[in-house]
């Protein structure tokens, strides 16, 4: 019961879970936006997709380079390694190292005139993204009259990055919700803009994240209602309540299984057909298309 109450308090952004004093609670409350970010970002998914389509449709960009460090680059790097290059979309590159050899290697991979640079920094003052920004902007300025047209910024409102990006006439500035820390920003602009630019379905991603939250809520409500009923009744009532709780949870789990059958399994089969190995998940050998069908 204590564990369930703790989960409920976290989902309701109760800062007192961590600290009792108001000073720390204020800081914590401004760091819990990741709990509700799927719903917020679904509302702006069309805006992100429209921008990605504008970039793809122009045919001017062969690469998109995310320049960031830590939480600003982790999700894009996972997306890049997982999904690779999508047909008719720019290739996503992720620069998160100041090693001169790494930078030189990136320089040889790209055509400066056909690369869109995304400068990602929550604070807008992180040294490495600022260095990347200044370096690439100077490089592009030597070949293009409007270098800002090749740059996008992702940052919090009111940061130094906003000022610099505005002054240098960046193509677009995405202002991220300020109550989301960098390492929890995968489903915010920091993860979704690179995802859309490389051709991924961000609406499906957000819908699944929101669906997980709703399913967790259903499980919690089903358990809580049953326990509350049990506490108000005698021993026999407890047995009845537990039976009802199991039935409620079984219904929710059934929904999860139907979701997997409808969406996840077909995707895995398509990956197998394309030669992508599917991890068995139990330490066994990768599952082939035929084996996957048998498991279904």
Write down the overall geometry.
Answer: elongated
Could you give the order of strands across the largest sheet?
2-1-3-4-5
Order of secondary-structure elements: HHHHEHEHEHEHEHHHH
Distance between the termini: 36 Å
- Portion of residues within helices: 55-70%
The chain-level mean pLDDT equals 82
Report low-confidence residues grouped into runs of 5 or more.
Answer: 276-296
Q: For the report, how would you describe the main beta sheet?
A: 5 strands, parallel
Number of helices: 12
Strand content: 5-15%
The chain-level structural class is alpha/beta
List the helices and strands and how they pair.
Layout: H1 2-11, H2 22-29, H3 37-42, H4 45-58, E1 63-67, H5 71-83, E2 91-95, H6 100-109, E3 115-120, H7 127-141, E4 151-155, H8 160-167, E5 172-175, H9 189-197, H10 202-231, H11 235-273, H12 289-295
Explain briefly what this protein structure is.
This protein has 296 residues and is of the alpha/beta class.
